[in-house]
């Protein structure tokens, strides 16, 4: 499902006006009326004590005025008040016209002043029409006071028009303050910023309302600025064994993960790779762990790396990289996953870099392998073509030599910067995981929940993506399909149990695959009733 930026939405509106002579007044009328229909779908039957429509200085405010008018027509006995943050004399064109209509109809209008703060009684339906796609700077002064008042309303329902006010609809940033809505009714197309963190938490359930864009007349009218991953999109790429397949043709994965101190990371990565359809999983393990592998996951084939003769505790050394590269060729591996639980010693860092440099196949770079790359980032600039990097915000910060908080502020921009710098596919984990290619394709994942913030969850994702790669999917498609399935598994599991272990994720994965295959799943955040 295509996503759009604020800038393109504005261009699209201009184009509709110029090419089809659809007047902007009509678009605003369509917007307001269709939003009222969506509000009714959400629940007007709840007998709200009153309705507060908070209007700002631009066209988003104008939409609010149309909404107030239609609610007034449909529910004449319901007290509706328009709160205007801004000077009515400076309202432009369509907003000014709708302001005049509301005045003439006699809908109460109150101007909001700093000395006259807003407060809402319990049981108020609050329509947030302060700012939409035209937000151009941080929210301050009276606008900040209004947003705080909306967020402090008790036992009320907050419905945001187009965008929760204070959200940058292109990048998903919080511009100083933002409305925390229960529902967001977005117009025409889903704005890209709504589905990524941090904005995503402010949107509640997202609904899409039509404003009369003739999409079917011009399928190419909207530029490619990102898409929301959907079950329909990933269905053709799910694991599928051909009739004449064998374990090699299905796909062999090399896993370089785990160490004596962090065995679980390797086990989880291997398990996830098998559960997502790999024909054979090879684990490059060490002599101390080899017996454990046989008992824990008997299906795993281990490549036992040579013993460290002079040290008490086994550790990864650079020459082990040659052994892994040899095994990749011998075992006909088609992808590699490297990183989870490898440790952060200098010898493991050298080892990791050597594997990535020499490996005959490409794959997923995660966890300790990301940190090894970050230490030597200038060397790796532009050298990771075909590799998939799966950082969380902290790892991303190290890779870009920036603070984790600056990454969190604008996750899409950071993901694009990483893909550009290393020429790699980026998977920035977190709420609304982002997948970006060096060519600038941007995919946002709608699945997943906070239960995924558990040890080993990233190892499972690494195993899934590497497995899909081994099964012949492209790096971008493997990442997109992998993140969707990983999140969906957690969402489906949550219905059964509030507590999720990473090993549950790996075991439950085939169920998520089946649900997508059988078309039994609807997107959780976009309600297209
Ligand atoms: N795109 C469509 O097809 C349709 C969109 N509709 C609705 O219109 C808004 C977008 O309207 P727009 O007027 O462009 O923008 P806003 O209403 O969001 O706000 C613009 C005004 O707000 C001022 N502004 C911006 N940021 C701040 C701030 N932080 N503090 C104070 N004031 C701010 C801005 O001033 P400038 O100086 O920046 O110009 C403007 O005055 C869209 O979201 C839809 O709801 C339609 O009605 C239907 C068609
Ligand atoms: K709004």
From TrEMBL:
Positions contributing to K(+) binding: 60, 128, 165
EC identifiers of the protein: 4.2.1.136, 5.1.99.6
Binding site for AMP: 429-433, 458
Catalytic activity: (6S)-NADHX + ADP = AMP + phosphate + NADH + H(+); (6R)-NADPHX = (6S)-NADPHX; (6S)-NADPHX + ADP = AMP + phosphate + NADPH + H(+); (6R)-NADHX = (6S)-NADHX
Signal peptide per UniProt: none
Organism superkingdom: Bacteria
Keywords of this entry: ATP-binding, Isomerase, Lyase, Metal-binding, Multifunctional enzyme, NAD, NADP, Nucleotide-binding, Potassium
PROSITE patterns noted in UniProt: YJEF_C_2, YJEF_C_3, YJEF_N
GO molecular function terms listed in the Swiss-Prot or TrEMBL record: ADP-dependent NAD(P)H-hydrate dehydratase activity; ATP binding; metal ion binding; NAD(P)HX epimerase activity
Cofactor or coenzyme needed: Mg(2+); K(+)
Domain YjeF C-terminal: 230-516
HAMAP family associated with the record: NADHX_dehydratase, NADHX_epimerase
Oligomer status and interactors: Homotetramer.
Family in the record: Belongs to the NnrD/CARKD family. In the C-terminal section; belongs to the NnrD/CARKD family.
Name of this chain's protein: Bifunctional NAD(P)H-hydrate repair enzyme
Species name: Atribacter laminatus
């Amino acid at each position: 499902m295509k996503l759009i930026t604020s800038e393109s939405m504005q261009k699209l509106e201009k184009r509709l006006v110029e090419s089809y002579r659809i007047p902007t007044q009509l678009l605003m009328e369509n917007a307001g009326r269709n939003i009222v229909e969506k509000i009714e779908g959400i629940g007007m039957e709840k007998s709200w004590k009153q309705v507060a429509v908070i209007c700002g200085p631009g066209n988003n405010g104008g939409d609010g005025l149309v909404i107030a008018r239609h609610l007034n027509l449909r529910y004449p006995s319901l007290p509706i008040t328009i709160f205007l943050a801004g000077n009515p004399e400076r309202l432009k064109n369509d907003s000014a016209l709708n302001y005049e209509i509301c005045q003439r109809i006699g809908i109460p209008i109150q101007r909001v002043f700093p000395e006259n703060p807003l407060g809402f009684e319990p049981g108020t339906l609050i329509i947030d029409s302060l700012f939409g796609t035209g937000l151009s700077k941080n929210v301050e002064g009276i606008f900040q006071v209004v947003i705080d008042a909306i967020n402090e309303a008790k036992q009320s329902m907050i419905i945001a028009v187009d965008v929760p006010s204070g959200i940058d609809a292109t990048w998903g940033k919080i511009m100083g303050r933002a409305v925390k809505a229960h529902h967001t009714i977005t117009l025409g197309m889903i704005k890209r910023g709504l589905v990524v963190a941090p904005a995503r938490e402010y949107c509640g359930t997202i609904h899409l309302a039509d404003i009369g864009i003739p999409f079917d007349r011009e399928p190419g009218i909207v530029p490619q600025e990102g898409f929301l991953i959907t079950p329909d999109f990933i269905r053709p790429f799910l694991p599928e064994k051909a009739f004449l397949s064998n374990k090699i043709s299905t796909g062999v994965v090399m896993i370089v993960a785990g160490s004596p101190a962090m065995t679980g990371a390797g086990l989880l990565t291997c398990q996830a790779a098998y559960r997502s359809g790999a024909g054979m999983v090879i684990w490059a393990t060490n002599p101390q762990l080899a017996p454990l592998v046989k008992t824990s996951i008997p299906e795993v084939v281990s490549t036992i790396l040579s013993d460290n003769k002079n040290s008490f505790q086994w550790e990864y050394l650079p020459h082990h990289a040659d052994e892994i590269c040899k095994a990749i060729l011998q075992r006909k591996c088609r992808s590699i996953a490297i990183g989870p639980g490898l440790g952060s010693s200098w010898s493991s860092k050298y080892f990791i870099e050597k594997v990535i440099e020499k490996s005959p196949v490409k794959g997923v770079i995660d966890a300790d392998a990301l940190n090894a790359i970050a230490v030597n980032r200038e060397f790796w600039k532009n050298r990771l073509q075909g590799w998939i990097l799966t950082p969380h915000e902290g790892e991303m910060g190290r890779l870009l030599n920036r603070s984790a908080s600056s990454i969190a502020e604008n996750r899409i921009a950071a993901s694009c910067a990483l893909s550009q710098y290393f020429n790699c596919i980026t998977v920035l984990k977190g709420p609304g995981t982002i997948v970006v290619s060096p060519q600038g394709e941007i995919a946002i994942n709608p699945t997943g929940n906070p239960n995924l913030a558990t040890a080993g969850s990233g190892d499972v994702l690494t195993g899934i993506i590497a497995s899909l790669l081994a099964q012949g999917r492209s790096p971008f498609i493997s990442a997109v399909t992998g993140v969707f399935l990983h999140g969906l598994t957690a969402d489906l599991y949550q219905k059964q149990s509030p507590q999720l272990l990473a090993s549950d994720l790996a075991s439950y994965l085939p169920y998520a695959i089946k649900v997508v295959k059988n078309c039994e799943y609807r997107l959780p955040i976009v309600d297209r009733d």
